Amino acid sequence: MSPFTPVRKLEVSRRMATGESVPVGTLAQNRDGVFFRYDTDYLRQGQNLSPFNLTFDDSLQAAPKSPHGGLHGLFADSLPDGWGLLLMDRVFRRQGVLPHQLTTMDRLAYIGDRGMGALTFAPVSALAPEDDEPTIAIGTLGREAVQVFEGQTDDVLQELAQAGSSGGARPKAQIYRGQDGSPQVSTLPAPGREPWLVKFTSASLALGHEEGLCEAAYLTLAQTAGIKVSEWELITAPQPTDAIAWLALKRFDCDPTRPATGRYHLQSACGLLDADFRMPSLDYEDLIKATQLLCKSIPAAREQFRRAIFNLFTLNQDDHSKNVSFLMDDVGNWQPAPFYDATFSPSPHGESSTAFCGHGRQPPAKAIQAMGRQAGYSRWSEIQPIIQEVATAVQGWDEQAKALGVSARTRKLIAKNLEQVRQDNASLMR
């Protein structure tokens, strides 16, 4: 086995919606930190990929020491967290490399061209899984993922390592599915296959094996409330397993006409604003303002406002900065990415990760009014109907959850909490 050599330099490219790959710039690391410089050709033809934190010129730009582990937020978004890091560390350990030996640059080289969004990194790490276009049964992939997540095995299938570079703490996989509904999936882009993200379930999750069912119900409620969500479906979990169904989400960073190669640039609020997702560090008023500035759109800001109200009334308190993202097309137009990672997730302290004008819970009307003004609403009479629309949609919880197969016990538990939060915020609907 050859000795591990840390990565010092990476060439960054951007996959366009057309499928073309365009050089963007260079990342380099020395003892002083990580630095990035845009390519001169890209400066003439492209757009700033992170307009709040990078200048669009040929200067050498140092990464902040925090909150992205010494990496620019733009590139930190290409790295997984939680689940993906667990898989990555297992692969490196198997090659005799300990996690503390790795830098964020080493991890980017491991990701190569398998990350979410449009950015790719070269050269690819020699320790990354080989690209041999494997196919595997979705049931096998799911069972292996859960065994790793629950600590039943230290081994990681190559297919799982290839598919596990997305963010979040739950076990999941990026897959490419055929339109015929076959259980055989690919973990690499393949002609005739569509890109999906599948979230597996585990008894150790807060909602156990009903986690996917509940998230599907929440996505249905959000859509009823006028919020743009990803296309999704439930995949029946194969037997023998305790799982009921797994939630599959069609990837919104892939161009639907070129799903194997076309990409939209994807950036989270965490990466755009240098907001640490591990702790409360963002306020909806600031997020709405950033959305309006980035997207140059009042409707986009109002979409963000509506999502904030939905999170309030559904106790989706895991609403941190990585759970909000934006997409940019080939000509530089930004828009909010579809709503995702929305489910019943009350925090231990009963407060949202993203504050409502400084309030973690039960925001007063004046706080919601301030958020509304930032979204372009001048009067309370314009804001109240939105609150009512969202609150009415949320009341459909039991019906939607029952239709999707959520147990009576779980429906009752969540319904009780949703009714309490409705009462706590009843003053907003008067």
Rounded to the nearest angstrom, the radius of gyration is 22 Å
The level 1 CATH classification of the largest domain is Mainly Alpha
Helix content: 25-40%
CATH topology descriptor of the largest domain: Phosphatidylinositol 3-kinase Catalytic Subunit, Chain A, Domain 5
Into how many domains do the coordinates divide?
3
List the secondary-structure elements in sequence, H or E: EEEHEHHHEEHHEEEHEEEHEHHEEEHHHH
Low-confidence stretches: none
Strand content: 15-25%
Mean pLDDT, all residues: 92
CATH architecture group name of the largest domain = Orthogonal Bundle
What about the largest sheet?
A: 5 strands, antiparallel
State the total count of DSSP E strands. 16
Question: Rough shape?
Answer: globular
Strand order in the sheet with the most strands: 4-3-2-1-5
Number of helices: 14
